[in-house]
């Protein structure tokens, strides 16, 4: 059987499931402070910081799974979004696209940060945060917000620029946390780079992480 790019190379175990639960909980905790509503529409929250960390630390598959678990709990009514929001109604509101963007964004972050199943380095981490954590989330969020609020797409995109400074700060914080963990506590990661296949002639000479 051929694995897809987003599928794990080994079956989920108890540790994987625990990590998924931890990062779903982390994003929920980051939503405890009430968000700041932008023109009464989409709130500015710290939860995207958790999305960035989930993708970078868990990798694409588990990162996306952790966000899926979180949003499934939200859908059944748990108040896990900023300001205690929950229920199926949030998925038809102005922020619905951003929420779906969390799943795809976490996957894209993981794919970039762990590209080629390699050990995370600072430049891929930063690129992953910017592309997956900001551009991808906006690509889902802005059109849906435009549709729900009935504002023109270009006007909605301009209004969404208010998010950018905060998201850049969160991307910088997340990148710093990830690189610190790579050096100080690599066990925090699902160590895909340790199982990366290597040519037989170079396997013995490969550096040990």
- Strand fraction equals under 5%
What does the overall shape look like? Answer: globular
Structural class, by secondary structure, is mainly alpha
Proportion of residues in helical segments: 55-70%
Strand order of the largest sheet: 1-2
Sketch the major β-sheet: 2 strands, antiparallel
Elements, N to C (H/E): HEEHHHHHHH
Q: How is the secondary structure organized here?
A:
Layout: H1 14-30, E1 36-38, E2 42-44, H2 47-58, H3 60-75, H4 96-113, H5 122-149, H6 153-159, H7 164-184, H8 200-203
Antiparallel strand pairs: 1-2
List keywords for this structure.
single chain, 209 residues, mainly alpha, Arp2/3 complex 21 kDa subunit ARPC3, 8 helices, globular
Structural features, described:
This protein has helices spanning 14-30, 47-58, 60-75, 96-113, 122-149, 153-159, 164-184, 200-203, and strands at 36-38, 42-44. By secondary structure, the chain is mostly helical. It has a single domain (14-192), classed as Orthogonal Bundle (Arp2/3 complex 21 kDa subunit ARPC3), CATH 1.10.1760.20. β1 (36-38) and β2 form a beta hairpin. α2 (47-58) packs parallel to α4 (96-113).
